[in-house]
Amino acid sequence: MKKLLIVNGPNLNLLGSREPQQYGYETLADVEENCRKVASEYGYETECLQSNTEGHLIDAIHKAGAEFKQGHCDGVVFNPGAYTHTSIALHDAIKGVDVPVIEVHISNVHARETFRHHSYISPVAAGTIIGMGTKGYKLAINFLLDR
Ligand code: DQA
Q1: How many structural domains compose the chain?
Q2: Known binder of ligand: residue 92?
Q3: Is the Cβ atom of 29 under 6 angstroms away from ligand 1?
Q4: Residue 29 maps to which CATH number?
Q5: In terms of Cα–Cα distance, which of 93, 80, 64 is closest to 3?
Q6: Ligand 1 atom closest to Cα of 9?
Q7: Average pLDDT of the segment spanning 108-123
Q8: Which residues contact 125 (CB under 8 A, 6 or more apart)?
Q9: Nearest C-alpha to atom 7 of ligand 1 is from which residue?
Q10: Rounded Cα distance, 97 and 7, in Å
Q11: What distance separates the 2 farthest-apart alpha carbons in the chain?
Q12: For a Cys staple, 77 with which of 25, 42, 52, 140, CB 3.0–4.6 Å?
């Protein structure tokens, strides 16, 4: 079965209890289960990973790139959390592989602090979904698999 990788970065393990006015009340487990359901409608499975460590996220992108080459993985839905605004290393990792990466942000980062307005990920992402709540993950999967 073909798969998609769903990757969440730092602090997204706290979804459901962290700043619910920004991120809502769904937990990461809820988000991952919804992703699994949406992908399964296309006959796809999902592999979900959350890490608070930049290097683990880089390794996940590299692995998705290798699996894309082998025809096993068709894309990555990636919420890089705060690394969005800081990580040249994640930018380089995405640039270094061919797999399409959709950048997702639950909150509207452009309506928040100015340090959240710049993304190192957007220039190397296949697309970005911002401010649509946790529904953004579903929209990203639809985009990747409707093509
Ligand atoms: C976030 C936005 C980031 O600025 C923040 O650091 C996060 C979550 C979002 O999903 O809205 O951790 O990526």
Answers
A1: 1
A2: yes
A3: no
A4: 3.40.50.9100
A5: 64
A6: 12
A7: 98
A8: 78, 94, 101, 102, 103
A9: 81
A10: 16
A11: 42
A12: 140
Domain encompassing residue 17: 3-146
Q: Is the CB of 105 under 6 A from ligand 1?
A: yes
Task: Say whether pLDDT at 5 is over 90.
Answer: yes
- Please compute Rg for the chain using Cα positions: 14
Structure tokens at 86: 């800081």
**pLDDT at residue 1 is higher than 90:** no
Q: Report whether residue 107 contacts ligand 1, using a CB cutoff of 6 Å.
A: yes
- pLDDT of residue 53 exceeding 90, the answer is yes
Q: Whose CA is nearest to atom 9 of ligand 1?
A: 105
Q: What is the mean pLDDT of the chain?
A: 97
Catalytic residues, which ones?
23, 105
| 74-87 per-position pLDDT tens digit | 999 999 999 999 99
Task: Kindly report the pTM of this predicted structure.
Answer: 0.98
Angle at 134 between CA 84 and CA 40, to 5 degrees: 110
Q: How many CB atoms lie within 10 A of CB 120?
A: 18
106 known ligand binder? yes
Q: Which of 46, 19, 36 is nearest to 133 (CA)?
A: 19
